[in-house]
Amino acid sequence: MEWYLMGMVAIIAGAMVWPLLAKRHAVWAGWLSAIAPIGIFCWLLTQTKNVANEVLPTWTAEWVPQMGISLDFRLDGPGLLLSMLITGIGALILIYGGGYLKGSPQAAPFFAFVQLFMLAMLGVASADHLLVLFIFWELTSLASYLLIGLSHSELAARKAALRALLVTGTGGLALLAGILILGSVGGTYSLAELQTKGDLIRSSPMYLGIFVLVILGAFTKSAQIPFHFWLPDAMAAPTPVSAYLHSATMVKAGVFLLAKFYPILGGVPIWHDTLTVIGGVTMLLGGILALAQTDLKKLLAYSTMSALGTLVMLLGIGTDLAVKAAMVFLVVHALYKAPLFMIAGVVDKATGTRNVTLLQGLGKRMPLLGIAAALAAFSMSGLPPFVGFIGKELLYEAEIHAGHYSLLITCLGFAANAINVTVALKVGISPFRNRGELPDINPKARKPSLLIGPLILALAGALIGLFPWLLGEGLINAAVRDIVSQPVDSDLKLWHGFSLLLVISAVTVVVGVVLYIFRDRVRAMVGLVLQKIPKKSSDIFDWGLARLIEGAGMSTRFFQHGNLRLYLVVVLICLSSLITASLVSTGFAGMPQSGPVRFVPVGISLLMVMAGIAAIRSRSTVMAVLAMGGIGYGVALLFALFGAPDLALTQVLVETLTLVLFALVMRQLPPIQAYSSTRRRATDLGIALTAGVALTIALLAVRGATIPDAERISAEMATRSLPEANGKNVVNVILVDFRALDTMGEICVLAIAAIGVAGLLLGSGRRNVQAELAIATPLFRTAVSWMTPLLIFMSIVLLFRGHNEPGGGFIGGLVAGAGLVLRRLASADRPPDAGRQPFLYMAAGIITALVSTLPAVFLQRTFMEGVWIGSLWLPIVGKTKFGTPFLFDIGVYLVVAGVCLLILTRLIRGETLKEATHH
Amino acid sequence: METILILLTGFLFTCGFYLMLRRNFTRLLIGILFISQAANLVILVVPGLGPGFSPIVPDGATRPLEGHPDPLPQALILTAIVIGFGVIAFAIVLLKKAYHGLKTDDLDRLKETDS
Amino acid sequence: MKNLWKRTLFRLPNLLRFLPIYLREMTVSNIRVAIDALRPVPAFVPGFVEVSLKGYDPIQRWEAACLISMTPGTLSLDLVDDSDILLVHALYLQDPEQTKNELETLVRQALGKPNYLPS
Amino acid sequence: MISVLTSIFLLIGGFFSLVAALGVFRFTDFYSRIHAATKASTFGLGFTGVAAALALGTTSAWVKMIAAIAFLFITLPIAAHLLGRSVRSREKDTKPHQD
Amino acid sequence: MIPDLILTLFEVMLFVSMALCIWRMAIGPSAADRMVAIDLLGLLVAVLMISHAIRTGDESVLDVVLIFAVIAFFGTVALARHLQRESDEPTDTQ
Amino acid sequence: MTEFPLYLCLLVPMGAAFLQILLLGRPRAQRVVAVAATGLLAAVGCALVAAVKTGGPVILDVGGWAAPVGIRLQADMLSALMVAITGIVGLCGAIHGLAEIPASDERRGYHPLYQFLLFGVCGSFLTNDLFNLYVWFEVMLLSSFVLLALGGGKAQIEGAVKYVVLNIVASLVFLLGAGLLYATLGTLNFADIALRISEGKGSATGIRLSAVFLLLAFAVKAGVFPLYAWLPSSYHTPRHTISAVFAGLLTKVGVYALIRTFGPTFATEQGFILPILWWISLLTMVIGVFGAASQFHTRKILSFHIISQIGYMTFGLALGTAGAFAAAIFYVIHHILVKTNLFFVASVIDRIGGGEDLKKTGGLYRNAPWLAILFLIPALSLGGIPPFSGFWAKLALVKEILNVNAWFAAGIALAVGILTLFSMTKIWAEAFWKDRPEDAAPMRPVSVSHVIPMVILAVGTVAISLFPAYLFELADIAARQLLTPVAP
Ligand code: NA
Ligand code: NA
């Protein structure tokens, strides 16, 4: 098995190497790339004995233990058979493809993707772990997508590739689901183990689900009705690809999968009925559709579909004989279909057309090709002594012994076989017959590499026909044995003697020939019938896809309408419903606990309500902004009233700064206009009220049961603040010590905001414009020249006292910032740009904050732990202890001051410059 | 007292929501400000209000007076206020810029970048 | 502005001497406003007067402006064209010339004679 | 004694605050409103501040309140100056402005 | 030590004052009027804080008052500036 | 000193931000710092993963105040993984930025903001404290606001308005949630919250209400249906570097917060929250992929995909089992790598293909076959094609879904997969396969800095694809540590 896997590695390595060569020397690339698959093929030949004797090559390695996935490979009968097709035909296709695509830009990707595909197929053929198998399975779809799209300039090719991908991809996902369920039911993903647990699976309630999902995977891959439509489209791929993927190997993967699952899922009526019916219908329909074609590749494609139907039907019948017939037919079909495809490609290349009604006389021009074509066609027609004859005999035998519907099945099979004969004649004989004028041949079509593949395969068909034991004892018996899970021992024979079968065979050929003779009339008739069919499955698929995309577009436009107001409405609705759901599910904890009502806050609340109503009702921008300021001051007052002086201070400062910001941009925003209709206003009010009421009830509910103070983490903070953190102002100690990390983030937020504001405003005016500031009156300047130093002084006092009394870095920084900005405002002679100064403040602040964390690190203490140096008595401030938390607070102070300075000066300057350029 | 202040915050929230749903930039901003004021107030009120003095250790004591208000929500609010200031400062300038770039302050006309 | 602090210190005694006058003026001013605010119809005769601050340096002008704003019925609005003429809004402007003189006297009382510094 | 004094100061402060607001509310033109706001409010805060300093009786309370009052003396006239000036410059430019 | 009645009386006076301010703010008519009103409102808030300090004896509130007295000026400056520059712009309409 | 790498994860971006502010106006130096700092962050992040793998969660009580009094930083495997991936994505973004970000943006503060963004993201991942998380969210959010609006294009500003407003509202809801939770439980530390809830402290109403507030806030940040609107409005508007880093990291911080909060912390609320999340996630998957299927603009397609994929991640959370958490964590890591990479590819498509409108671009397969490969790796991975990392992520998740016999959900998850693949093929077919239209905008040169990040991320994706066991192991550890929080 190692050789096999090393071969796979060689192939994937080749997929990376040979494309590089193929750009210039495609033929060489073809020959060289065939080495690896030929090597595997040879190794496979050595293994036939072992496999026949049930000594199966295996290999295993751990891969993803968490998912229960190991790289288990195991080459059983069907696997060996499929592997030989993949490598044998694959090698020839690579050689053929090198010749076919010489000089084409498609050559390089062809080699890359075909070898990727080959790897994937070898994986499918040999994987024992179902998920590993699935991985390779999906890779085949992917490779197929890329290969169908090789002629990607054409829309048709892109569409065909997409169809194939979507159909097989969807099937693949179904298969994955089936595998996962199967794995959980069977307790293992090992095919070998599962094959011994067939009874368990079949009796499981999940059986039907598994079955449906698995056959969905198989049917889409093997182009069974109604998923067949992607296959004829896939003929948009270059011929070597069609020959390999869409006739010999990939489409067989579905059949192969069914064969592998037969011991697990097979032998149940539903399996039998479904496969037989779908397979039979596909077989017949493929044949009939083939009759309507004139394009060589389309002809072959539909007949391939018919053959796939046959195979599925045989696995449905499920008798030993049917399975055997299936396995034989699998090989037979590959041996004639692949060469016919390749021949069709050469014909196309030689003459520039694939239309059978136009082609003739090629036999004289290309005799060797003609021989190969004839051999393959005879095999396809089921004439002795070709292997096709053996296949057909077995087919009929299986069909006749199919049980219940054997007569019907046989008739269906008869029809399909007869059509096969017709197709064979059309493809393999008709173009080569001489009916007068000989065509001109493109010399590019005369290359040994183009001929060797068809010849070898066609000859192999003849050879095996003559010596059927080549195939029988080793391969077929082993494959059938592993599918039906019991030893079989029957030889393949070319000659069964004169029997009913022979008669049927003969009649088949005769009917086929007759159909061929009247081919034009038949085609017209079938065409007429097909026209009557209103909707084909490809149409349904396209229609469905179009509706899906349309629906997707509609849903997207519905949800992503671009209206911010409605986005906010959605948020509010979600909020209200979540609150409602929570309250309904838990109920109220109790009536809200409320302390004694105090007169002042109640009054303030009433005034705030007044301001709020004013803000809503007024259409004056100034009014709205001032009302907002009023509310802010009210909140500050409430903070002060409930023992939060630090908060009140911060709130007052921030509120003022916000007011200043608004004042600076207000003029550049338009006056408030009444955009909304009255009705919409009413709706909005309703929504706002709903959300507001829900929120209020939620808050009251939470207030109904809060945790006692003593159990809060703050209790410990209050106790430890002075003794351990050397600060009397617990709030400040929390900010710079207990939760200094919050503050660290917070100063960053401020710095970011400042940089953002500066960035947004950068370049919003010309540089070096001298603008006289209307506000910088002499009186104001004089006043400010007093105030700035005072404010800075106060800010420093606030900073130093912060640890013990209201104040601290933030508050101090805000005051300092206000002072600095005032000074800028008052300077009449230049625009108030602070230049790099605020950035330096910010940087200095951040580095100070960072440095304050270092002593602890150097002293081997915890990150950001306070390190205290000693205490100092300062005027006004009093006795204060100094340590890293204080240093940290200085950092905060610097950042905040820098931020205020940057934001405000940039705003003022942007505005001023705009003014200056306006006039 | 808490109940009354919760009702007040509810009122502020409602005002804020309503203002936010208007189509003007200015009202949107003011709506956001209302909501953030209310949110700050909520954090102070819901855990319970103090009697009026602050959580500062008096001279000679080792911990704040008995019955002091919870200092932690105060610290949280302080952080939230400052962060809110940064955010609002940016938002104000952004909307100013938006008005200059898009030549409208009607939010309903901002539909170019969606699907 | 360099000598701001020095000059301020230099003038401190002057300022302290002036404080009582200032407080008196303010009290009167406030009572008048109070009366008018409580009256059914305020007895205003509003108007503007221009007070000359010629010879005073910027700080003194500022002091003068503050002083005038805090005196009864008058409010400093602006230095006209940023010069040394202070525009004052008065509430009880029966006689503009008299008001102007009163104000200029008040300023001189408070700030001393102008230095006639070159401006 | 101190409490009586405090009470009196407090009430005077309240009274002048009320006067300021009444003025702003009742006076008919902008200039008279700003007159009221500037003068009476200084007194309002001044008296109340002294009352607080008396009531608390600490040095720091006195320092803070005197500083606050001093600041008001500096800032309020300038604020009035700025507001009044801008209104006047508007009146010069345009006809009386309705907001 | 200060009679509760006096304090309450004081606070009522302040409330009335503040309500009047808000009223003026709401009715305008000019932006300058509204600004004067908010200016005064800020100051009244500070005054009310002082009474709280008297009630509780907690001096820390006085720091807020001090800063308030200083910083309110800053707001006025910006508002006045807005007013000044608004003169040549389209104005708010009621 | 085992916690050394832990706080280095914060010090590095913050120190870098400091340097970048100092160096404003000196772009060369800034660029060096940007790459060096992000590289260092990536290295430190990986070191942290290694440290956690060998020694268990790394815990640091900041300032020496033992949690829950102080803020605890905690690097369990989940956090460490997220930080490491943040470093890697940050490095890639920094390199891509070298080629893309114009000098004008650098003057506007791109470099410090970028570092601040990473700072916020790392902080969010490392903190074990609810309010501290709020602060980190804000750091991250505000820098993202600015980065989004940087450059000030019309579309950018418009997108930024929606992004900013909706995210501000979400932040306020978060703040409320944190406040209510503190009122109810008296603590902010995650582990302590879990402990107190399990001890039966706090009112059920309070706990539930704060839980739904947090749910709403994180759902907006994560971009979950129907709260994702800000994302497709804005993510396609800024510079590619910026949208790539956003696409990789930002929503995932929301997902991370959801996992952290509703995984172990609000254990008792799972019965209430997870069913909601269950349906929401399914809708997110579907509506998101519908959006992607209907668009014809590379970054819009990719943006809608983010939403769809978020649905998978939150569904992992909604399942509520350790295995599903592991799957969700795996999914997050995979998606960050892949999605960032796809945005980088979109950047190069924009340059070579002449725009982002798929109808007006093409011919890349012929013009830039290397780009085809670099696109296919993340695209196939996103589409869930085996054996790429996206397949493993979906496989793990679907397995968990099937474990609870949720057939419908499994069906949706798989069906959305095929639509994902469909919309990826749209980019492939239009931009790569289709011939270049005559009127396509001219090609612009591509520099090495455009390509290096794609290669780094593609190598990462391939590594996860071929050796998923390593990441699964880490995800398993992460899920287990997540569900057994270290007691405060
Ligand atoms: Na976000
Ligand atoms: Na994202």
Number of strands of chain D: 0
Structural class of chain D: mainly alpha
Query: Which ligands appear in the coordinates?
Result: sodium ion
Q: Portion of residues in helices of chain C?
A: 40-55%
Give the helix/strand layout.
The complex is a heterohexamer of chains A (919), B (115), C (119), D (99), E (94) and F (488).
Chain A: H1 2-22, H2 26-33, H3 35-52, E1 58-64, E2 69-74, H4 77-100, H5 107-126, H6 130-148, H7 155-186, H8 191-195, H9 198-203, H10 207-221, H11 230-233, H12 239-248, H13 250-265, H14 269-291, H15 296-317, H16 320-351, H17 362-365, H18 367-381, H19 387-400, H20 406-429, H21 448-466, H22 469-484, H23 500-517, H24 519-532, H25 537-559, H26 564-586, H27 599-617, H28 621-641, H29 645-666, H30 678-703, H31 713-725, H32 730-738, H33 740-761, H34 778-801, H35 809-826, H36 837-851, H37 854-858, E3 868-874, E4 878-883, H38 884-918
Antiparallel strand pairs in A: 1-2, 3-4
Chain B: H1 2-20, H2 25-45, H3 71-102
Chain D: H1 2-26, H2 30-56, H3 59-93
Helix pairs in contact in D: 1-2, 2-3
Bound molecules: sodium ion (2 copies).
The site of one sodium ion has 4 residues of chain F, from α11.
Structural overview:
The complex is a heterohexamer of chains A (about 900), B (about 120), C (about 120), D (about 100), E (about 90) and F (about 500). Among the domains of chain A are: about 270-485, no CATH class; about 730-919, no CATH class. Chain A is built from 38 helices and four strands. A two-stranded antiparallel ribbon of chain A has the order 1-2. In chain A, strands 3-4 form a two-stranded antiparallel sheet. Chain A is elongated. By secondary structure, chain C is of the alpha+beta class. Chain C has one domain (about 1-110). Chain C contains three helices and three strands. Chain C has a three-stranded antiparallel beta sheet with strand order 1-3-2. Chain C is globular and about 50 Å long. The mean pLDDT of chain C is about 80. In chain D, α1 packs antiparallel against α2 (about 30-55). Chain F has one domain. The mean pLDDT of chain F is about 95. Helices cover about 80% and strands about 0% of the residues of chain F. The two termini of chain F are about 20 Å apart. Chain F has a two-stranded antiparallel sheet with strand order 1-2. Chains in contact: A-B, A-C, A-D, A-E, A-F, B-E, B-F, C-D, D-E. One sodium ion binds next to α11 of chain F.
